[in-house]
Automatic annotation (TrEMBL):
<feature type="transmembrane region" description="Helical">
    <location>
        <begin position="286"/>
        <end position="303"/>
    </location>
</feature>
<dbReference type="InterPro" id="IPR018456">
    <property type="entry name" value="PTR2_symporter_CS"/>
</dbReference>
<keyword id="KW-1003">Cell membrane</keyword>
<feature type="transmembrane region" description="Helical">
    <location>
        <begin position="31"/>
        <end position="50"/>
    </location>
</feature>
<feature type="transmembrane region" description="Helical">
    <location>
        <begin position="335"/>
        <end position="354"/>
    </location>
</feature>
<keyword id="KW-0472">Membrane</keyword>
<keyword id="KW-0571">Peptide transport</keyword>
<dbReference type="InterPro" id="IPR036259">
    <property type="entry name" value="MFS_trans_sf"/>
</dbReference>
<feature type="transmembrane region" description="Helical">
    <location>
        <begin position="148"/>
        <end position="168"/>
    </location>
</feature>
<dbReference type="Pfam" id="PF00854">
    <property type="entry name" value="PTR2"/>
</dbReference>
<feature type="transmembrane region" description="Helical">
    <location>
        <begin position="258"/>
        <end position="274"/>
    </location>
</feature>
<feature type="transmembrane region" description="Helical">
    <location>
        <begin position="56"/>
        <end position="77"/>
    </location>
</feature>
<keyword id="KW-0812">Transmembrane</keyword>
<feature type="transmembrane region" description="Helical">
    <location>
        <begin position="477"/>
        <end position="495"/>
    </location>
</feature>
<feature type="transmembrane region" description="Helical">
    <location>
        <begin position="86"/>
        <end position="102"/>
    </location>
</feature>
<feature type="transmembrane region" description="Helical">
    <location>
        <begin position="392"/>
        <end position="412"/>
    </location>
</feature>
<dbReference type="InterPro" id="IPR005279">
    <property type="entry name" value="Dipep/tripep_permease"/>
</dbReference>
Length: 503
């Protein structure tokens, strides 16, 4: 007997049991995604002979497209496929992408990447929306659930990000894998874990009741006419058409700018159109969701320096005073490492505070997210106080900054997923989740621009000058983050009104 939605949502204890299955599917998907992402720039430079700048631009373009495509994936899930079929289709495309790369990464590089981009768009937003559906709209345990889920995301990110490139470069299992096969196997590894993710999801489906069923399915909670088969196949077909388009656009990065200028306004216009079809109370909630989405662009714009300017800072201006670890390794994976431990703890803290009726609401959590982010960037600024004359400073101190920034991320990112599911109407869940991730695309985009600004200022200068330029920049960013946090807290009464009963 399959469970009813009520039975699922009226679970006892802190977490619904289905969250663990979704945790694992998402963990393996993130393994595949971050595994591939971690190999991109290195592979382009060392194997495809791209210049550093070109490789970085192309990397930025793939990131923008990946997160922009979540909007499309979410929209089609709402209208035609439902979350489950979308997730499955996305997963299949990601497997195909990884297999193409495994077959001949040199020849089919952009083709494989394009499949992964479209696949992630269908997978990523929809699994998060399903986590939201495990909870009743006002269940105060949802933030804790999303925090746990977020730990899964980062566990996958950490393992994939480390293992795939280590296999490709021959730092791992080099004795067993002949040199000419290393990159093939590294990309193939991403395909294998994605298969595990989907197999796990097949078993998960049984315990999901009506969650994620296709619109019009007879067991769906919201009753509607069945979707004609041609529409479903139409979506599959259309997504395949997107593959060569994305391939071309990623390969020529000047298209990314046009794309980014067009996609945001278009999605906003579409949202406004959808807003005309809902009740005034629902509309207010969608406005509130939009406030969170817009602020998150600022957050990711600052946060995502980690992939750009901070990795240069780590390479040039940090010593190895933290257990002899490599500064770039710490910069790449330190955040994920902290999250795996801190996310479940913070989730339990939210539940504990809620029991005592002192849990901060979502806007305040967002505000705190910005304040921690700002403090983290001020600590980055302060690394200059420990620098020697060569401009080399302490990795230990840098790691403290990373920890504080991570606390900020945990007050914003999982909470953002949670609030999207609470503020969206039933038939716009996927699309709003897609918009949340689209904001990340803009964040990445802004981050690249900020990072490039910091880097050009530094040309032809000594290492010490570079330290001063970078840390000055981080102080500025810290200030912007704190200002954004304070503004959020100040406008919280208005946003609260828009949110109505949602906390
Ligand atoms: N690191 C998180 C993930 O991969 C958040 C990404 C984002 O929203 N920018 O899911």
């Amino acid at each position: 007997m399959s469970l009813t939605l009520d039975e699922i949502q009226n679970f006892k204890g802190k977490y619904p049991k289905q969250i663990w299955s979704l945790f694992f599917s998402e963990m393996w998907e993130r393994f595949c995604f971050y595994g591939m992402r971690g190999m991109l720039v290195f592979f382009m430079i060392s194997q495809l002979n791209f210049h550093e700048k070109e490789a970085n631009l192309q990397y930025g373009a793939t990131q923008a497209f990946v997160y922009a495509f979540t909007f499309v994936g979410g929209l089609f899930a709402d209208k035609i496929l439902g979350f489950r079929k979308s997730l499955f289709w996305g997963g299949l495309l990601m497997i195909v992408g990884s297999l193409i790369l495994a077959t001949d990464p040199h020849k089919f590089f952009f083709l494989g990447i394009a499949f992964t981009v479209v696949g992630t768009g269908f997978f990523k937003p929809n699994i998060s929306s399903m986590v939201g559906q495990l909870y009743k709209p006002n269940d105060s345990r949802a933030d804790a659930g999303f925090s746990l889920f977020y730990a899964g995301i980062n566990l996958g990110a950490l393992l994939g990000g480390y293992l795939c490139i280590a296999i490709g470069k021959g730092e791992l299992f080099a004795d067993y894998i002949p040199e000419e096969l290393r990159w093939h196997l590294a990309f193939g590894f991403a395909a294998i874990v994605m298969v595990i993710s989907l197999i796990n999801f097949v078993f998960t489906q049984k315990s999901l009741g009506s969650i994620g069923l296709q619109p019009g399915h007879p067991d769906n909670e919201v009753k509607s006419a069945p979707i004609p088969k041609w529409q479903e196949y139409g979506v599959y077909f259309l997504s395949l058409i997107f593959v060569p388009i994305i391939m071309t656009m990623v390969a020529k990065t000047e298209y990314t700018d046009y794309f980014m200028w067009i996609i945001g306004p278009l999605t906003l216009i579409y949202l406004f159109y959808e807003m005309t079809k809902v009740t005034p109370a629902e509309r207010k909630k969608l406005w509130a969701a939009l406030v969170f989405i817009l602020f998150s662009i600022i957050f990711w714009g600052i946060y995502e320096q980690s992939g750009g300017s901070l990795s240069i800072f780590a390479a040039k201006n940090l010593n190895k005073d933290l257990l002899g670890l490599d500064p770039n390794g710490v910069n790449n994976s330190g955040g994920a490492f902290f999250i795996i431990f801190l996310a479940p703890l913070l989730g339990l803290l939210w539940i504990w505070l809620n029991k005592r009726k002192i849990e901060p609401n979502t806007i305040i959590k967002f505000g705190l997210g910005f304040i921690f982010l700002g403090l983290g960037y001020y600590i980055l600024f302060a690394t200059r106080l420990f620098a020697n004359l060569q401009g080399i400073t302490s990795l230990n101190f840098f790691t403290i900054a990373l920890l504080v920034i991570t606390l900020g991320e945990l007050c914003l990112s999982p909470i953002g997923l949670s609030i999207m599911t609470k503020l969206s109407t039933k038939n716009l869940q996927g699309m709003m989740m897609g918009m949340w991730f689209l904001a990340s695309a803009y964040g990445q985009y802004v981050a690249g621009i900020i990072g490039a600004g910091l880097a050009t200022a530094k040309e032809d200068s000594t290492n010490y000058d570079a330290l001063i330029t970078y840390t000055d920049g981080y102080k500025q960013l810290g200030l912007y983050a704190v200002i954004a946090g304070v503004v959020l807290i100040l406008i919280s009464p208005y946003v609260k009104k828009l949110m109505q009963d949602v906390k």
